[in-house]
Specification:
By secondary structure, this protein is of the alpha+beta class. It is about 15% helix and about 35% strand. It has 2 domains: about 150 residues, no CATH class; about 90 residues, Immunoglobulin-like, CATH 2.60.40. The strands form 5 sheets. Strands 2-1-11-5-6 form a 5-stranded mixed β-sheet. The chain has a 5-stranded mixed β-sheet with strand order 13-19-18-15-16, with no helix packed on it.
Length: about 325
Amino acid sequence: MRIIKWFCLLTLIILIPILVLACAPSMQSEQPTLPTQENESSAAPVSPPATVSENAKPPAPSDDFDWHIRITDTEGTEFWSFNESMLISTMQDSLFAHAYSTINRWPTPRIFAAEGFLITDILEKSGLLDTAQTITFRAVDGYEISLTRTQLFSSQYFFPQVSENNIGAQPVYPIIAFRLTESGDDLGELMSTNPTLIIGQRDTFEQTTHAFVVGVSDIIVDSTPSDVWAAPSTFPTDWDIPIGDTVRLQHPDLGLVHIFYTTDGSEPTPFSTLFNPSVFRPELTESIPITEPTVIKAFARGFGRDDSEIAIFEFTPIP
């Protein structure tokens, strides 16, 4: 009898770990496929999941801030206006809460956490979602940022390791936030704020902090095709130059755009070398040395207009 008891006990000891391992979910998480210039659609906004955010919760209207947002076209015709109470009572399904990674123009990476209402749903409510091509968000103090349809509606992410890699990237969506914390990704630290435009990053190096418009009062929708940034130029222009001399890339709106370039003959993308990484630290901008025949390909990218055409410059060093 004692032998049977010991046999049963030994059997349980062996089987329990096996059953636990068999039932446990895999610890290996899949990484999202990040968008590229080639596969990103500019026509349709990225749709959030049916259950937008399990982190969002119905808030009570804030007593600290009294705000009102108008949606107009470029002629000033008003299509809709709303305040916090209206959104809370009519657009509960549009609530989204998440951490957002960002990089400012110093450039310094940061992580925010925010809760608010989806821009796509707000524009749909106004009847302008399908026709909007350039959307401008203006604050009560006059500060504004414009985003093209592609920039606002393409796939956006939260990168836990912002400015380093895309490991653990999570989809996020542009929102008008009414609760916000600038001190990390803890949603438990959210505090009431003036309505703030918050967007995600399209890649882990994208600088987006200057697009966080605090105190949004107007959303202005332009339904005409978006403008295109001018292409970069060089100094000196492309010709024979003394061997070892350097070339600088130029742009009439250098403070508003980033210039990406290659020197190996490949087509530049937002993952290519960035010529001007900081608006405030010109010492980070490095000229391009010419020590052999070189073909520079470059384009400009910035909020409010579509990417420029790719400019091509050829340099031949002379002894």
